[in-house]
Design a protein that fits this description.
Helix content is about 40%, strand content about 15%. It is an alpha/beta fold. Among the domains are: about 90-270, Alpha-Beta Barrel (Anaerobic Ribonucleotide-triphosphate Reductase Large Chain); about 585-715, no CATH class. The protein starts with a helix and ends in a 10-residue tail after the last strand.
């Protein structure tokens, strides 16, 4: 097995077992052996001892050769005491306090165990509706989303995975307009992705410009009507603003519900690709398509792929039985339908290797062919398992009973995001295009490492055109599409996410969706200059091509909120101090402080003239008040660039005490604001005393200089990883860091 340096770092940081002192006590090879052994044990009673050992070897070889990897909780927890192996869950929410807070409790247990949760808030009565039992009025679904959000914030998951939620509201709920705009502010409901559950009736009304009904979820009666096109435009405008909400096509999902006799699907997991019934979980895994190419890299080795699919389905089905579920209802429901989700990663890299442009009909047809093959072979593998172990318990309530197909799993395929898995495998994520061909990674002591896509690097080395200097230039440009240094044949093949038109993003999603049981995780990356009409076209194209949902992100849209701080509720406030623009290059320090509830990282940056121009903060894994600290740093940054003297700002911040620090000894700061004020004061002093451009650590605590970092690295708050401070990417319906493996979605 050959792992990249970055893969080893991610494995050490998030996956490998540690002792009580926090020291890594497992190698990557031992991890894969641990997982293979634990999963193979599910065959006890069905296979002989020799056959079980053979399966264990198959599982180990698939993983060690990076041909197949299961979802992160399986790698982390299989064969270990926690034993929770599922990535995603859906929990029901009924319209009662008892149900709501029971679900919050269950969600907390799931997050603690390393899973993400999806909810439909559509059954909760609308804001202002009468509550007969108390004589009061309902507060509505959004108020309870905030309660769920706060509960998620409070749950800590041992530093390996973070809680993430999907919140869905039907488009015919009376509170739909408030829901659509509930995340206009990027610091609101931060632990949720949100999507509108769209119906066929609604989409037909959009196309015809008609009104549609809003239905009270409690009485089931029509309460009013709205113009469908206006509601659709509100979805479009908010998605343009910051990427949320996404949309899922509920009727389309339920039309392909394989167990309709059990119930209706109302929600998905946090990344939108796994529609589930209440209390279901799904166990996901992905085949590395790059490793499935033939020796000449001209096509796929379909015999190898067939064998890999068979072994992967066996693996994922076994996961269901060895899994330690966080709730007995989840245990029962998951085993009753036995849903698995086999997907792919490395698609874009495979296209690179075959010299096929991502945005081409050839690539689309190949995608259609490869996913149809995987889906068909996964069904055959599940049918074979049914002959050995039996059909899933809810088989009689499924479409397979009518079709007289005896099968082990109610679903077998899903295209999931593979953020950290693709880092381990050193390939592109899911079916996403490559985000960038070359990165500049900032490390300690002001060093910069150039990281280059391996296939791109090989192609240039073969042609004699590779140099580190050229790769630095590629990293700065972000794309080679307009660079004169490359032949057109290279430019055509080695495209990145922003080189690909929205139309082709959706086309690729649609061809993979054709042969995927569940759904496809895919982010449509739009350029910053994209208009609301571009967003609208994406949504309509996704609907017309048969997608089950769509998520998009316009580059820089989550950063723009920082620049709009002078606007409140659509009104522009007047000010005597208009903030000067943020400089493209800054010099600064990051310092770690121990605070009452964990760690706080404060960064203070200065412009080329030595004037402090911005502050931002990140909390460590163990706590802090991230939204409050971010709000403070944003306001301080605006004040600094508006000419407010640093002394005035420092005087306001220093000395503020947080209750969490009162009973703790050896803390050098009194609160997060106090830490911000102290670092501003120190940097101001250093800027006044420096005799050269080379800074040194200014006290006994560790300080890291970020000297003249490119704007792409230290740009606006939401672009930076909260753990390693590198730039993050929007892909697979989520936000993730390719340097340390951090993912907003867990």
């Amino acid at each position: 097995m050959k792992l990249s340096d970055n893969a080893i770092k991610v494995l050490e940081r998030r996956y490998l077992a540690r002792n009580e002192a926090g020291e890594v006590v497992e190698t990557p090879d031992e991890l894969f052996k641990r997982v293979a052994h634990a999963i193979a044990l599910a065959d006890d009673g069905f296979l002989s001892e020799d056959e079980i050992k053979a399966s264990e070897n198959d599982f180990y070889n698939m993983m060690i050769n990076l041909e197949f990897l299961p979802n992160s909780p399986t790698l982390m927890n299989a064969g270990r005491p926690l034993g929770q192996l599922s990535a995603c869950f859906v929990l029901p929410i009924e319209d009662s306090m008892e149900s709501i807070f029971e679900t919050i409790k269950n969600a907390a247990l799931i997050h603690k165990s390393g899973g993400g949760t999806g909810f439909s808030f559509s059954r909760i009565r609308s804001t202002g509706a009468t509550v007969k039992t108390t004589g009061g009025v309902a507060s509505g679904p959004i108020s309870f989303m905030k309660v769920f959000n706060a509960a998620t914030e409070a749950v800590k998951q041992g530093g390996t995975r973070r809680g993430a939620n999907m919140g869905i509201l039907r488009v015919d709920h009376p509170d739909i307009l408030a829901f659509i705009s509930c995340k206009q502010d990027n610091v609101e409901i931060t632990n949720f992705n949100i999507s509108v559950g769209v119906t066929e009736k609604f989409m037909q009304a959009v196309e015809s410009g008609e009104d549609y009904d809003l239905i009270d979820p409690y009485t089931k009666k029509v309460v009013t009507r709205l113009n469908a096109e206006k509601v659709f435009n509100a979805i479009v405008e908010n998605a343009w603003n910051n990427g949320e909400p996404g949309i899922i096509f509920l009727d389309r999902i339920n039309k392909e519900n394989t167990v309709p006799g059990v119930g209706e699907i109302e929600s998905t997991n946090p990344c939108g690709e796994q529609p589930l019934l209440p209390y279901e979980s799904c166990n996901l895994g992905s085949i590395n398509l790059f490793t499935m190419l033939n020796q000449e890299k001209t096509d796929f080795d379909y015999e190898k792929l067939k064998k890999t699919v068979m072994k992967a389905v066996h693996f994922l089905d076994n996961v269901i039985d060895v899994n330690k579920y966080p709730h007995k209802m989840i245990d029962q429901m998951t085993k009753a339908t036995r849903k698995i989700g086999l997907g792919v990663m490395g698609w874009a890299d495979a296209l690179y290797a075959m010299k096929i442009p991502y945005s081409s009909q050839e690539a689309a047809e190949l995608g259609r062919k490869i996913m149809r093959f995987i889906n068909n072979e996964s069904k055959k593998a599940s049918i074979n398992l049914a002959e050995l172990k039996g059909v899933f318990p809810y088989y009689d309530k499924s479409v397979f009973k009518e079709q007289q197909i005896r099968i082990r799993n109610a679903t077998t395929t899903t295209i999931a995001p593979t953020g950290t898995l693709s880092i381990i495998a050193d390939v592109s994520s899911g079916i996403e295009p490559v985000f960038a061909l070359s990165y500049i990674r900032n490390v300690m002591d002001n060093d910069q490492l150039v990281e280059v896509n391996s296939i791109f690097k090989q192609a240039l080395e073969d042609s004699g055109d590779y140099s580190e200097e050229l790769m630095r230039k590629v990293a700065e440009e972000g794309t080679i599409s307009h660079m004169k240094d490359f032949d057109q044949s290279i430019k055509d093949v080695f495209v990145t996410a922003h080189d690909i038109s929205p139309e082709w993003h959706i086309k690729m999603q649609a061809v993979f969706q054709e042969s995927t049981d569940n759904a496809v995780s895919k982010t449509v990356n739009l350029k910053k200059e994209a208009t609301t009409e571009d967003v609208k076209d994406v949504f309509l194209q996704a609907y017309s091509l048969g997608c089950k949902g769509v998520t998009l992100y316009r580059d820089g849209s989550r950063d723009s909120q920082v620049l709009n701080i002078g606007k409140v509720n659509g009104k522009t406030t007047s000010s005597d101090h208009n903030p000067r623009p943020r400089p493209e290059v800054t010099t600064g320090f990051t310092q770690k402080y121990k605070i009452g509830c964990g760690n706080l990282y404060v960064t203070v940056n200065s412009d080329e003239n030595g004037n402090i121009c911005e502050v931002f903060t990140n909390t460590g894994r163990a706590g802090g008040c991230p939204s409050q600290s971010e709000a403070t740093s944003r306001l301080v940054s605006i004040a600094l660039r508006s000419g407010v003297p640093t002394k005035e700002i420092v005087d306001q911040l220093k000395g503020i005490r947080c209750p969490s620090t009162i009973r703790q000894k050896d803390l050098k700061v009194l609160s997060c604001p106090d830490a911000i004020g102290r670092l501003i004061e120190k940097v101001e002093k250093m800027n006044g005393e420096k005799e050269s451009k080379e800074f040194k650590a200014f006290d006994n605590e560790k300080a890291v200089e970020v000297k003249k970092a490119p704007v792409a690295v230290v740009d606006k708050f939401t672009r930076l990883c909260p753990e390693c401070h590198q730039e993050m990417e929007h892909e697979g319906g989520c936000v993730m860091c390719r340097y340390c493996g951090y993912s907003k979605c867990g």
